[in-house]
Amino acid sequence: MKDVKVLGPGCKRCVTTAEMVQGEADRLGVAVTIEKVTDYAAIAGYGIVSTPGIVIDGKVVHAGGLPKAEDIAHWLA
Q1: d(CA 59, CA 14)
Q2: Which cysteine-cysteine pairs are annotated as disulfide bonds in the entry (predicted)?
Q3: Phi, psi dihedrals of residue 10, rounded to the nearest 5°
Q4: Whole-prediction pTM value?
């Protein structure tokens, strides 16, 4: 199971990012837990200054803007 954190203030892009991650996980058959992190101090703790950010299993894989579906699939593989 992959532990995914979507970091951001809860904006539309952050919601869309979480939906994209869940959609790719479902398509690939990968079990994930998705946590939305909205606390600015926690977000800054990952070194992310542009949101949405994505952290998978403790590793920052994306920051700023919507990720590409093929990138999400690569990160979840």
Answers
A1: 18
A2: 11-14
A3: 100, 20
A4: 0.94
Backbone angles phi, psi at 26, to 5 degrees: -65, -45
**3, 10, 11, 23: which is the annotated catalytic residue?**
11
pLDDT digit string, tens, across residues 43-74? 999 999 999 999 999 999 999 999 999 999 99
Residues contacting 45, CB < 8 A, separation 6+: none
Q: Respond yes or no: is residue 14 known to be catalytic.
A: yes
Tokens standing for residue 52: 């949405």
The fold for domain 2-76 equals: Glutaredoxin (3.40.30)
For the chain, domain boundaries: 2-76
Residue of 4, 6, 7, 14 marked catalytic:
14
Residue among 26, 7, 25 at smallest CA distance from 15: 7
